[in-house]
Amino acid sequence: MQNMNRKRVLFVALVVLAGIILLYAGRVEPDASATVAGRTSNHFNGEVFFNPVVQGQSLPQGTEQRRGFSRWVWRWIFSDDWPRWPEAASFPAGPPPAARVSRGDLRVTPVGHATFLIQMDGINILTDPIWSERCSPVSWAGPRRYRAPGIRFDDLPSIDVVLVSHNHYDHLDLPTLKRLAGKGVPRTVTALGNGDLIRESGLTTVEVLDWWQTVRLSADITVTLVPAQHFSSRTLWDRNRTLWGGFVVTGPSGSVYFAGDTGYGPHFREIARRFGPIRMALLPIAPFNPQRAKEPSRTRFPNVHMGPDEAVQAHLDLGARVSIAAHFQVFQLGWDAFDEAPNGIVSTLKERNLDPASFILPAFGRAVSAPRETERASVTYREAS
What we know:
single chain; seven-stranded mixed beta sheet; globular
């Protein structure tokens, strides 16, 4: 009861804050690149971006999940039936990563949630970085981090490029981007419409892409923005005004796919067709329960997130040599129990007679080295039990 009252107080404060922002800032618009490029895009209707294929969805294009998201916010504020996660324990950070890896080598260190340090072919890439305590528009309210980042911020090696998949607060965290700007990160790549917001952090060289557009990171390394089945928003009035996506990074060491945040869909097979074989895939596995259920369930959060079953199927669709689980046990963003998503991965791999080392539940802060053709992934991970 005390927790619910505290949420209601925070709700009132947030409403007041939103009113002030609306009064002084007016309606939030995407930057010009989204409007210009979007006119020729098959996932932009002139006002908002949309998912071209949403399974089981009959809503008009551009309006996906409005009611579902509003209900989620309402439940977060007023519901007292959220699954209780264990008391937060101390999770020590991993060792400082290597400064770089050699050409042909691929090493990925999960930091937590959707933040990964990808080291391949001599360059260092950071995905959707968040070292903040909360994923929220304010520092004093919103979902709080359950565990500390797997790499201490000061232990990060020199970062060559930051990839930002979309504008949700748990993926585009301005305080962290400001810290990275202070470290002199030279380059950021993101989806249409997010450029101006990222530049506010001090990261000045920002390249914005539409789905399937590619930029070169070095003489022999490219990054491509690929489709995701998701949505965007940072306020109550900017729904789907900016694009979302995942990334495929391709170099001498192979192709790495970072999904960002996505529901299950046919885009995985298309990514495999264009970029296969995928040497390593970084796939979200939660949240997937749309509401608390009396019995454990692996039913997906409608359309925009994957659960364990769908994540394993995405792994198979991609033909990935190895996949790493993301988006779990850091921020409580749904009605999943603490171990529900990881346990679901273990169960699904057993049910489908798949090698447990093919889909890794990582130890945050511990590097995963991509396997050669005859090897398993080299990693500290939780064995299936």
